[in-house]
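Researcher: Structure prediction, please.
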Amino acid sequence: MSHAPGLDVSNIDCGEWPWCPSPAGPQRQRRFGVVIRQSALNRLHAHGRTSLALEVGGALIGQTYRDDIGPWLHIAGVIEGESARSAAAQVTFTSDTWTHFHDRLEIEYPGLRIVGWYHTHPGYGCFLSEMDVFIHRGFFDLPWQVAWVFDPVRLADALFAWRADQPDRDTVFIEPDVPAQVFAAASAAKPRGWWDRFLRKAKG
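Model: Predicted structure follows.
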């Protein structure tokens, strides 16, 4: 599958991006930084908790900026992936899902754009499977587009940004625009036998 060559946040030319100071302030250390509003994270978590058995996902909405350090990405909201096909270890965005994303983008977030995607891994941790990387490379192949994984059973999150042509786990700053939404950890974690079968399948 063809994609943008040399996907790496260090290659971003942000000279024409709007200048805006990052809310991360002195905590911002890397040249490329990611900030997510707490309200967006609350909505992502709430959507992820709607299913502890099947994966769900959606789009990350925001904008790109630059400051004195370099480029940074602001995630201002999310759009839930309606009409997405869900399975225990996979989520697929259909053409109807993409139509929904763009329709809601115009209504809810005028002036912003799709800056990445999120999906859940209920009970088996925060990583990108081979299929996840395939989706990320095929549909989010701009160097500043990111992937977010949320495990609604373990209540864990991970952000992945492009580095050396591969999605690599990265840090993220949470902008406290609203109080954090607190959940209790789910007790119905996946049985070990399911995890072993998943690993064997993933390894082929």
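Model: Residues 188-204 have pLDDT under 50 and may be disordered.
Researcher: Thanks, that helps.
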